[in-house]
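User: two proteins, same treatment. go.

Assistant:
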Amino acid sequence: MSSDTTIEAHLNNLRVDFDDMRSDIKALTAAVTRLAVVEERQAQGADALERAFKMIDALTADVQALKMEGQISKQSNIWVDRSVTAIVTGAAVFAAKKLGWM
């Protein structure tokens, strides 16, 4: 009978150990699931950062293009101002000669 009691004690210990392993496996499963969610969020964050950097690069190129256009426009404005001044001066000289002021 003592061998039956010993076997029963060992079986009870095995049941307890299996129950502990089951609970540990459940905890591991939950941890792995949380880790997968965190990894997915990090991947989404990395993708969002990549898109943001691409947009920043595109905006930087647009700003550079606008700066170049601004410089060209500034030069054109100077030439237009000079041309208008020359035309107005020529017209004033012509009018002054016609009126006999010169």
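Protein 2:
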Amino acid sequence: MRLHTAGGDIELRGPLPERLRRLRPLLPLGAIGYAKPANGARYGIVMKCGPAEAHAVKRQPPVARLPRVNTTVPSESRTFHSVR
């Protein structure tokens, strides 16, 4: 799978089976392989199994919605600032 970003393309590759075997003991409820890929993923982390549930914190910066403010300066300085 390839992701296109402003900084360039990123190629996502599936994990090697050996890496999954080493990772699985670190996950409280393990990981599974999907019969059919879901949203491009072939594997998933088990977060709930019956009454047992793995609690986790998703480490991702929040999406900031900043107001759009434009400031122009005299043309002799040839500078335009935009904050989004």
